Amino acid sequence: MTNSRLFFTEKLLEWNRETNTRSMPWKGEKDPYRIWLSEIILQQTRVEQGLPYYQNFIKNYPDAKKLASAPEEEVFRLWQGLGYYARCKNMLAAAREIADTYQGKFPAQYDQIKALKGIGPYTAAAVASFAFNLPYAVLDGNVYRVLSRFFGIETPIDSTAGKKEFGDLAQELLPHDQSAAYNQSIMDFGAVVCKPQQPLCNECPLNKKCAARQQQLISVLPVKSKKLQIKKRYFNYFIVHYKDNIYIRKRTASDIWQNLHEFILLETSTPLDFEALQQTDGFRQIFGNTRFEFEGVGKPGKQQLTHQTIFSQFISLSVKQPLPATDYMAVPAASLNNYAFPKTITAFLQQRHLQLF
DNA sequence: AATTCGGGGGT
DNA sequence: ACCCCAGAATT
């Protein structure tokens, strides 16, 4: 252990004891189920955004067995709006694994924890340290930022080499007798003091030995090598009424919003109005020769995702005969709130209640 | 090793 | 616009 590393760990723990006031409902929590649930919800998600979901899940499913036996659609409804829906699917799979293989008792060994669906290196270390005080250092966005700045490491954090370098360093810095407190400290410190923008360097207890501060690298650390490309997509949704039913389906393709539902979708590579849409093959495949009556259009939607921009329009139609389209099902309009929908559709549904077609 | 998976908030 | 968020699974 070098001097600066001892200094780092000691000052961090001291900051946590004396200055850290960040409070969260699962802090100090020892129930591994609750810790796990909070960690799954908080993957790539801000505490403020995830908090109400956490409360709701704990209330509805107080333990792993309850979650494991819950109806899948009900669980997705609770997850609706939180994003990254694979987390929900994997969470259910993990809960069932805990119920079946471990009799509902959360496994206490790192390798067992890590083997559960949806649990990667970060979450395994978090649960192992917080619930069982096992010596595994967490490596999340906060840790990357704090370590890269204090130690002046310019290796890109989104590279294989970076993951190993930062992971090894984080593990070396971990005081094995205080893994829970230390892991909590470094993440809180990154969130409160060593923030992405406008970090509080003047009041930082580490500033004397911070390499980024000494070398004026605060704004360039941590380094990320990849830049993402954003695609534009045009989702034309048809809300087709048949008697009191509306056609929907569950999205299953390897694409966004897996396991969520949607109306009849005609995706186009360019924006098209209703008249132009009717001339496409896709439209004819859906409607065939079925006569339809135009009911109205909803407010156009625009949703910004990480890798794509979704432009959506909503066109309401009514038919007097069932549609030939087979992969959609006609469900009672009043039952729509039993299904989980992506944000762009729930926004439309809310809008529609005000307008009424 | 690179890509893809949401949605919200800050700048 | 762009970045970031208690990352993980898939390709």
UniProtKB/TrEMBL annotation:
Keywords: 4Fe-4S, DNA damage, DNA repair, Glycosidase, Hydrolase, Iron, Iron-sulfur, Metal-binding. GO terms for molecular function: 4 iron, 4 sulfur cluster binding; 8-oxo-7,8-dihydroguanine DNA N-glycosylase activity; adenine/guanine mispair binding; metal ion binding; oxidized purine DNA binding; purine-specific mismatch base pair DNA N-glycosylase activity. SUPFAM superfamilies: DNA-glycosylase. It catalyses: Hydrolyzes free adenine bases from 7,8-dihydro-8-oxoguanine:adenine mismatched double-stranded DNA, leaving an apurinic site. Pfam families: HHH, HhH-GPD, NUDIX_4. Its EC number is 3.2.2.31. Residues 41-192 form the HhH-GPD domain. One of its GO terms (biological process) is mismatch repair. Adenine glycosylase active on G-A mispairs. MutY also corrects error-prone DNA synthesis past GO lesions which are due to the oxidatively damaged form of guanine: 7,8-dihydro-8-oxoguanine (8-oxo-dGTP). This is Adenine DNA glycosylase. It comes from Chitinophaga solisilvae. The gene is mutY.
